């Protein structure tokens, strides 16, 4: 498309240069994003799902849905360019895809308002004059060199330029019959020594200047960061188990202790250094599976707790309970037997189902559509085996809704029917239940049902019960949605930011944006929006 450009609101897209221009701005953009914007500009106002974008923009290459989603995010922040106005460019059409809504028109390269071609010189006459000048300059330089050679004298390296000028002056004087002054040469040398002295003084000053202390990290001693690892033989199954067990240990600690927890699985940074770190690894050795749990202090960089547990399908519940209790003791958290029993409520009892639940928790914390579907399949199989397990049904209900939020452009008619059926079952069972304390996940599911039914009073009551047991990123997202329904955008932004702090990931951002209903996070949660949509300086750096 030689010479073809697009005017997109106040931006000018110059495809040949991989650049966007607007008044006093010039932004270089990756070819991947340029190709995507060019295609959307050619079909402005049309909706395209991710498969169609992969077909037309990536030529049907093997590209995951996550690549498309991330490209849309990056393109949005390029077009926004750090501005806080309400100009809209790319929008998500729920259950369909994406479209460009900006005012768009095709223009010629020379008609662009901010792009200007570089000046060029092609005159033959100018070339000849330049060549003539070069010849003259060469002859003059040779002549000057011959004359200078007769009058050479010691000059320091810092004043060679000054010396050359002096030589020219001296040559003129010689032509007039004047002799070069010996005193003048020594004045030049003295000036050279003066410059050397100034240079030494500057170097000395810079070398010994005191620098200002800059604090780039603050240590939070009440924050624990969990990191999971696969077996050293790169077995993916062990990574899934390590992730699921990490989430269980985090949930237990958040339910009983005073610590705040977060999972380390992203490149985002918050500027806060966790005071403590817990590493979870599932290792395979000699046909046996072991769970390794290590607790390290980031302040002293010492390992304060390390233990290995032999793990099988038959003793998995015992290992989860024991490792959780041991870690709490190492952290100084007092957990009674009653507390531990409450933390194990709702876990599947049949052989092999608990391991399926642990693996499902890994998959439903991924943005990749196919991986998420694997997690839903595992939860559905567990629900078939234990149809009266309210905890599993709550996990499944939340997973269906999260899947819809992470994939707003997909048609979810089948899941919609399942969501409605689970909603009715959970509400009926809770109304008939005489259980004094329920797992937090059930309260979260009931709160979400109430929010979707615009029953704010019940939703608030369920959330209070959930927070009474523990804090979680999902509960904070629900709290933010409820605050938006009340019209309290400040509280909503605070709740979404707490969720993002606990689980600093793209999944948390997308859930806060699309769960139950769409939220404009640039307006509601500026901190989250800036974390996922950094400034142009960070983008181009």
Automatic annotation (TrEMBL):
Source superkingdom: Bacteria
DNA-binding region per UniProt: 3-102
Transmembrane segments: 188-208
Any GO BP: phosphorelay signal transduction system
Ranges where the OmpR/PhoB-type domain occurs: 3-102
SMART domains linked to this entry: Trans_reg_C
Keywords carried by this UniProt record: DNA-binding, Membrane, Transmembrane, Transmembrane helix
NCBIfam families: PRK10153.1
Protein name (record): DNA-binding transcriptional activator CadC
